[in-house]
Each structure stands twice: as structure tokens, then as C-alpha cells.
Design goal:
Layout (H helix, E strand, L loop, with lengths): L13 E6 L5 H12 L2 E4 H8 L2 E5 L4 E4 L1 H14 L2 E4 L13 E6 L2 H10 L4 H12 L2 H9 L5 E5 L3 H21 L1
Parallel strand pairs: 1-5, 1-6, 2-5, 6-7
Antiparallel strand pairs: 3-4
Helix pairs in contact: 1-7, 4-5
Subcellular location: Cytoplasm; Nucleus
InterPro entries: Adenyl_kinase_AK6 (IPR020618), P-loop_NTPase (IPR027417)
Organism: Penstemon smallii
């Protein structure tokens, strides 16, 4: 069983699901939360709902996240355990928060189509595709967390997502029974 920041044992694991926008983080997180009864925390939605940002970035058509405010908002929930955190970044979360870090990866042409359908264009579209090509988020995860808790999973189609949810559900069951 993992310890939280106060030295107490968490009864349920915390999982971070990260990856480039369009890789299926929210779909995977929602399905996993349903399968495991863990709490799904969509950081992008949380930032909007609780105003945990420093304004709007017109160039990237998104909020400028205030990482300190996000971490303050999540601290108690993360100490408690039983969370699936869904966000495209990972290097600002405290290492102690997570028992498993999942980086979803999608083939570039599939990702391009998904992001185009979302209305991504220009620099926002090309930056996200480049981020995936160069595996920026996988490297960020490996630099931010112990490598033995970081796993990359393919997320090109609905079958991949179903398989990933099944694999992660088994991981949660095993974590619970081994702690």
C-alpha cells in the first residue's frame, strides 16, 4: 500500500492518465472509473470550473493553467487515494501522488484526424502532432516518476481503449489485493 504525504497508507491507488490531446485520456479515464469505482478527475474541466488558471492563451486557444492552484485543489483528494487524474501534462504533479502513470499514444495520422475534427488548426495542431512524434509526454513521465510505474499504451481505436481499460482494471484489482 502506498503512503500519502502524511505517512498514512492509501487504501486505493491513484493513477495518472496522460498523453497528447486526442489520445483518448478522457474516454479511457471515464471507462476505467466506471469499471473500478475510482474517482475520475479531468484536470482541464477542473481548471475551468474552479478558475484555476491565469487567463486565456489566444495563440493556443486554451486556459493558462495555474499549476500551484491545481495542486492545492487536488492535495486532499490525492492523499485520500482512489483517483484517476486525466491531463495532458504530468511534470508538475507531486511524485508521491501516483502509483501508476499511463501515457496513451496514438498513431500520427489517427491523431491528426481526431484533432482536426475537434477544430484544431495551425500551430495548435502541428505542435500536438510534433509532441506525439517526439514522444514528449512519455519522456516527461519517465523524468518525473519512477520508471517502474510508467507505462505507455497504444490508443489508436476503440479496441485499444477497451483493452487498456481491461488491463488497468486488472492492475487496480491486483494493487488492492496486494496492499
Amino acid at each position: 500500500m502506498a503512503q500519502n504525504g502524511s505517512g498514512k497508507k492509501r487504501e486505493r491507488p491513484n493513477i495518472l492518465i496522460t498523453g497528447t490531446p486526442g489520445t483518448g485520456k478522457t474516454t479511457t479515464s471515464s471507462a476505467l472509473a466506471e469499471a473500478t469505482n475510482l474517482r475520475h478527475i479531468n484536470v482541464g474541466e477542473l481548471v475551468k470550473e474552479k478558475n484555476l488558471h491565469d487567463g486565456w492563451d489566444d495563440q493556443f486557444d486554451s486556459y493558462i493553467i495555474n499549476e500551484d492552484l491545481v495542486c492545492d485543489e487536488l492535495e486532499d483528494l490525492m492523499e485520500e487515494g482512489g483517483n484517476i487524474v486525466d491531463y495532458h501534462g504530468c511534470d508538475f504533479f507531486p511524485e508521491r501522488w501516483f502509483d501508476h502513470v499511463v501515457v496513451l499514444q496514438t498513431e500520427n495520422s489517427v491523431l491528426y484526424d481526431r484533432l482536426s475534427k475537434r477544430g484544431y488548426t495551425g500551430q495548435k495542431l502541428s505542435n500536438n502532432i510534433e509532441c506525439e512524434i517526439f514522444q514528449v509526454l512519455l519522456e516527461e513521465a519517465k523524468e518525473s516518476y519512477p520508471e517502474d510505474i510508467v507505462v505507455a499504451l497504444k490508443s489508436d481505436c476503440i479496441e485499444d481503449i477497451s483493452s487498456n481499460v481491461s488491463t488497468l482494471t486488472d492492475w487496480v484489482r491486483n494493487w488492492s489485493s496486494s496492499s
